[in-house]
Amino acid sequence: MNEGTVYTYRWTRRKQIGKTWANSGRDTKKIADVFIEEMGQMEANEETLESYASDSGFHNVAEWVGVIIDLGWQWAKQEGWLYKVTRISQQLRKTSVLRGESVEPHDNGEADTQPVPASSGREKEEKT
Q1: Is there a contact between 81 and 40 (Cβ–Cβ < 8 Å)?
Q2: Is residue 125, in this structure, part of any structural domain at all?
Q3: Is 126 domain-assigned?
Q4: Is residue 123 part of a domain?
Q5: Please, which pLDDT band fits residue 90 given cuts at 50, 70 and 90?
Q6: In the predicted model, what is the mean pLDDT of residues 62-91?
Q7: Rounded Cα–Cα distance for residues 14 and 58 (Å)
């Protein structure tokens, strides 16, 4: 995730949304400040995820759904949650700090000890 947005699917609902930070996997260093939006609860299938697949970090929706199912096979018959993760640009961060706004991780009432991994550990390559 260099700039822009990535969609990520989780079998369990996040406790922390809004401004936070991302890493590339559990126990790895921070790679970016991000803003997380919950897009809703839905099934992990090609039909429901098709419109988000181009920003998933995977080559196509079939590959993305395959990885979701492989990582959560024990929950595959229930719905999970889709999240939109947008990188907070360096300029936005500077502007927010000047306004006195926090860009640090926040809590919406419940503790979440893990930051959001960037799209199941895979990053979408930027087109230049």
Answers
A1: yes
A2: no
A3: no
A4: no
A5: low
A6: 86
A7: 22
pLDDT band for 34, please (50, 70, 90 cuts): very high
Mean pLDDT of 64-84: 87
Query: Which residue shows structure tokens 């390559």?
Result: 125
Per the structure block, which two tokens stand in for 12?
């369990």
Question: Do 117 and 24 contact (CB within 8 A), yes or no?
Answer: yes
**In the chain, how many domains are there?**
1
Which segments of the chain does DSSP mark as H helices, in order?
Answer: 46-49, 61-71, 90-98
Does a structural domain hold residue 114? Answer: yes
Q: Which domain holds residue 104?
A: 5-118
Q: Using alpha carbons only, what angle is made at residue 11 by residues 7 and 14, rounded to the nearest 5 degrees?
A: 70
Looking up tokens 């609860």 gives 41
> For residues 69 and 45, what is the distance between their CA atoms, to the nearest angstrom?
9
pLDDT at site 2: 52
